[in-house]
UniProtKB/TrEMBL annotation:
Residues 9-170 form the N-acetyltransferase domain. This is GNAT family N-acetyltransferase. Pfam families: Acetyltransf_3. Its EC number is 2.3.-.-. The keyword rRNA processing does not apply. One of its GO terms (molecular function) is acyltransferase activity. Keywords: Acyltransferase, Transferase. It comes from the Bacteria. InterPro entries: Acyl_CoA_acyltransferase, GNAT_dom.
Length: 174
């Protein structure tokens, strides 16, 4: 896959050099609730994951890309998961790692690049995402790019002993 180039950011494939970046994200307990992670990952496990990240989306049903600044500094990750080519849909998730880089338009640009890629290169009909009811920033991001709330899953995720509701949002390409 070639790098997807935007005005301020790019999306590129994972590289072996991303080991520490991915390791830090996957082991940041503060964001486990968004990824349904319940235990830390070893560097060895992340290294194996990176070694296999070149596999085709049609085989592994997912694709993870690194959001980079124009300087190639890693800012975050954006994922396509649950890829279903027969029904032409997939889930999408996004994370900008540093709080200092959030709400600067990087997420919007990354999501728009990914949406264009999904429509043009993967011929998808729709994307969906799951967002915690209290994650106002993510809800705003997805709605801004045309995702619509289509459902509310009540008491869906248990986070620190409390059940939280989760919205299901969907974007259908015209």
């Amino acid at each position: 896959m070639v790098t997807l180039k935007g005005k301020h950011i790019n999306l590129r494939a994972l590289e072996p050099e991303d080991l520490e970046f991915v390791y830090e994200i996957e082991n940041d307990e503060a964001i486990w609730e968004f990824s349904n992670t319940i235990a830390p990952f070893s560097r060895y496990t992340i290294k194996q994951y990176l070694e296999n990240s070149h596999k085709d989306i049609f085989e592994v049903k997912q694709l993870r890309l690194v959001i980079t600044a124009q300087t190639n500094d890693a800012l975050g990750l954006i994922d396509i998961f649950d890829f279903d080519f027969i029904n032409r849909r997939a889930g999408v998730g996004i994370l900008v790692k540093s709080i200092n880089n959030r709400q600067k338009g990087y997420g919007s640009e990354a999501l728009q690049l990914l949406m264009d890629y999904c429509k043009t290169h993967l011929s998808l009909h729709q994307l969906y995402c799951n967002v915690s009811e209290d994650n106002e920033i993510s809800l705003k991001l997805f709605k801004k790019l045309g995702f619509e709330v289509v459902g509310l899953k009540k008491d869906w995720n248990k986070v620190k002993g409390t059940f939280k509701n989760e919205y299901l949002l969907q974007h259908i390409f015209n």
